[in-house]
From TrEMBL:
This is Sterol 26-hydroxylase, mitochondrial-like. InterPro entries: CYP11_CYP27_families (IPR050479), Cyt_P450 (IPR001128), Cyt_P450_CS (IPR017972), Cyt_P450_E_grp-I (IPR002401), Cyt_P450_sf (IPR036396). CDD domains: CYP27A1. Belongs to the cytochrome P450 family.
Length: 482
């Protein structure tokens, strides 16, 4: 490991703040791999990080992760839980305890039969969102524009994940969003914004930093709201039992009545699942719509695929989605261009490992540069182009590396909410494209991504949503005349 080249802490600080890469660390992966090759080490304050920017080498790390892989020790997230005596969840727990929690959480999140049972709840949120788009169009002077699509989709994703996890509606899609819900959404955003700042400083100075107090305050609010929702569900269950009624419900009900986890563990896990389920869905759908608007031929083919399987007023369900290969390919290609987590981490605690021709001691922190590999032209020819067809089974290149794009991670530490996130994305995209033709912002502005722990749009995505029914009624109406 000592033989590896890479920037010092001061050089890293210069790149982040002098050269202005703090918000585009995903691009810094590509620049550094050009300078140092596919494997290099960086220093960030107290941390030494080994960066891996090659599909073969990422595969080598992940295949040696052992029985209890650690994402990172997340000292800032774990530090907050220690401070407030909260239980760790699937993102922050490690070792045998992590495996126990995952084994309890997994079945209802990853088994297709359980996940498809969330279709009705999600479709309820989807139909509310379709109505919201209609209202948003009416409130604009141009009649078809929807401004800040990502912001609106953030509310959709929040409502969707709450309807699955907490089995309740939060009012995110109401004309006026409840104040508590608005504050909850803001707190999630602030927590992700502050995370990369806190981690730059050693633990010992956190209590003296003003942003640490703010970081703790937003976490306090997240746990307070989650606690109220879990308590409310427990009261409902107790009432059902008291009146001899059968206890029915989905995710939270199952966790509470199975009694495999304590109340504090349920609270810790459900809060982390909620965090993991918002940006993922909202940003991916935003980018997918942004590209479909700029590629009308692909959008037209997608529309034809959707109405061939769900004609008329038929609402797509999970079985229908299995027969929509282009829809799946659009999501897959969007996740390649904009991996939600542009760089994932792994700590292999059980033994030393060899990656490439280097030997790494136990507890080395690896940073897997997924963004850089997604744009590697050896893996994906013409990497900057939006080409969903590259994911069709018959067109998939023989040399396309299975670890070239792994947006949900790999192995037993892979994303727990993958199936739910995919179901939400498929159900919403299919309905949006069925109802509306999506066209670009007439101003022609391009939107680039920035890193805020996760990859998000740097500026608002504004799009035109043209009602397809109306378009069918008025044959003379074209995009040019809109």
């Amino acid at each position: 490991m000592d033989d590896l080249d890479g920037p010092s802490f001061l050089t890293s600080l210069y790149w982040l703040f002098g050269k202005g890469y703090f918000q585009t660390t995903h691009q810094m992966q590509i620049e550094h791999s050009k300078i140092y090759g596919p494997l290099w080490k960086s220093k960030y304050g107290p941390l030494v990080v080994v960066n891996v920017a090659n599909a073969d080498l990422i595969e080598q790390v992940l295949r040696q992760e052992g029985r209890h892989p650690i994402r990172t020790d997340m000292p800032h997230w774990r530090g907050y839980r220690k401070l407030r005596n909260h239980a760790y969840g699937p993102l922050t727990e490690i070792g045998v305890e992590w495996q126990r929690i995952r084994s309890i959480l997994n079945p209802r999140m990853l088994k297709p039969k359980h996940v498809s049972s969330y279709t009705n709840a999600i479709n309820g949120v989807v139909s509310d969102f379709i109505e919201k788009v209609a209202k948003l169009r009416m409130t604009t002077d141009k009649d078809v524009m929807v401004y800040d699509v990502a912001g609106e989709l953030y509310k959709f994703a929040f409502e969707g994940i709450c309807s699955v996890l907490f089995e309740t509606r939060m009012g995110c899609l109401n004309d006026v969003v409840p104040e508590e819900t608005q504050k909850f959404i803001f707190s999630v955003g602030e927590m992700f914004r502050l995370s990369p700042i806190v981690i730059l400083f050693p633990k010992s100075v956190w209590p003296y930093m003003p942003f640490w107090k703010h970081f703790v305050a937003v976490w306090d609010h997240l746990f307070k709201v989650a606690d109220e929702l879990v308590q409310k569900k427990m009261t409902e269950i107790q009432e059902m039992v008291k009146h001899g009624q059968p206890v029915e419900g989905e995710y939270l009900t199952h966790l509470l009545i199975s009694e495999q986890m304590s109340f504090t563990e349920v609270l810790g896990s459900i809060t982390e699942l909620l965090l993991a389920g918002v940006d993922t869905t909202s940003n991916t759908i935003s980018w997918a719509l942004y590209h479909l608007a700029r590629e009308p031929e692909i959008q037209q083919k997608l529309y034809e695929e959707i109405i061939s399987i769900c004609p008329g007023d038929k609402v797509p369900c999970s079985e229908d989605i299995t027969r929509m290969p282009l829809l799946k390919a659009v999501v897959r290609e969007t996740l390649r261009l904009y991996p939600v987590v542009p760089g994932n981490a792994r700590v292999i605690a059980e033994r030393e490992i060899v990656v490439g021709d280097h030997l790494f001691p136990k507890n080395t922190l690896f940073h897997l540069c997924h963004f850089a590999v997604s744009y590697d032209e050896k893996v994906f020819p013409n990497p900057s182009a939006f080409l969903p067809q590259r994911w069709f089974r018959e067109q998939k290149q023989l040399n396309q590396h299975p670890f070239g794009s792994v947006p949900f991670g790999f192995g037993i530490r892979a994303c727990l909410g993958r199936r739910v996130a995919e179901l939400e994305m498929y159900l919403l995209l299919s309905q949006l494209i069925k109802h509306y033709e999506v066209c670009p912002d007439p101003s022609g502005k391009t939107v680039k991504p920035i890193t805020r722990t996760l990859l998000v749009p740097a500026t608002s995505i504004d799009l035109q949503f043209i009602n397809r029914q109306k378009e069918q009624e008025e044959p003379g109406r074209t995009n040019a005349s809109v």
